[in-house]
Amino acid sequence: MLYIAENLKTLRKGKDHTQEEVAEMIGVSPQSVSKWERGETLPDITLLPTLANLYKVSVDALIGMDRINEEQMKNNVFTKGYKHLREGAVSSAIEDFSEALKLFPNDEDYLSYLAMTLALDGDENKLSQAISLCERVLANGRGVKTCHTTRAALCFIYLKAGEKAKAIETARNLPHRRESREIVMAELEKEPATEKINSYLKFIAIGETDEQDVIEISFGIEMVAVCTEHDLLGKIKALRDEYEAQTNTEGLRKIPQIRVRDKMELTPRHVRVRHYADYLLDKDYESPEDATDEIIETLRKIAETNLAHNVSF
After folding, report:
1. At what angle do helices 194-206 and 108-121 cross, to 10 degrees?
2. 10-residue averages of pLDDT along the chain (313 residues)
3. How far, in Å, are 75, 207, 232, 244, 304 from residue 298 at the CA level?
4. Which residue blocks in the chain are alpha helix, DSSP H?
5. Domain limits of the chain?
6. CATH topology agreement for domains 4-63 and 214-308
7. Which of 115, 174, 193, 215 has the greatest number of C-beta atoms within 10 Å?
8. CA atoms 167, 168, 172, 178: torsion sign
9. What is the CATH code for 214-308?
């Protein structure tokens, strides 16, 4: 994402120029300047040095390279941190987010995720530090989603620290489904064991659970039509009927629940099938047929394994 539209508007107003004055100074129409600032078009590349000189900034500053680089770095930190959490390398994840905070000490996302990883460690001092970090994020309260996630995590961190009353009080302020009052408070009342608390923290942090009950199929833009064109859902239903008929017991499922999402920003013709404990397909495919075939084959393997071990969902 380029920040040139936002920057052009801010810089112009900082100089007390009108769009008409800027247009006259650089030899373009006022309509062009207006479209740039609305993000409808971009200035010709040959005009970037002129605009940078006009506002006495570098071309990098004009297009927002500092923010672009910061966002790319943030993506890299979270990709690395998530990988370590999935692998159970909690100490490495703590190091990932701690190092990031040295550069951006007030970043609420880093603070929140460091808190959750510290809580997963189990050390009492780290648990206390996790609580302090969560409370710090909530005290600032700038990012709504980050605050919701942090508040949900803090419920379980308080519970892990033996502070159930604080956990319940915090849960009363939760907003929506995964982090909702009803779900979190119901779990707090069960007084789950440490292993279960850790599972919830991991779920809140990276959207994964240790329970083997869900396959999530996510489509990129060009893959949305695949669901209909290649009758993926019909194939899944047929597979479910085939394996559930072998159980001879009503209500048992050998294939987990299916979630199909069509708004993921994945690469075109890129499919993710995730079975939260054992299976992960994340690759490019030569054709939609290849993608649907591998999805069905993965589900078949899960069903056969579950049938052999008499496991049901």
Report:
1. 160
2. 77 89 90 88 88 86 69 78 86 90 84 92 89 90 78 91 90 65 76 82 65 57 63 81 66 63 52 51 67 81 72 55
3. 29, 21, 13, 16, 10
4. 4-14, 19-26, 30-38, 48-54, 59-63, 65-86, 90-103, 108-121, 124-140, 144-160, 164-171, 181-189, 194-206, 226-229, 232-244, 288-308
5. 4-63, 67-206, 214-308
6. no
7. 115
8. positive
9. 3.40.30.60
Q: Is 214 helix (H, G, I), strand (E, B) or coil?
A: strand
Q: Indicate the burial class of 200 (C-beta count within 10 angstroms; 0-12, 13-18, 19 or more).
A: buried
DSSP letter at 116 equals: H
With beta carbons less than 8 A apart as the criterion, state whether 256 and 313 touch: yes
The CATH class of 67-206 is: mainly alpha
The span from the CA of 272 to the CA of 295, in Å, is 9
Class in CATH terms, 4-63: mainly alpha
Structure confidence by residue, pLDDT tens digits, 265-312: 555 445 555 544 445 565 666 676 777 788 788 788 777 776 766 655
pTM tops 0.70:
no
Cα separation of 258 and 237, whole Å?
10
- Beta strands 257-261; 214-219: pairing state: parallel
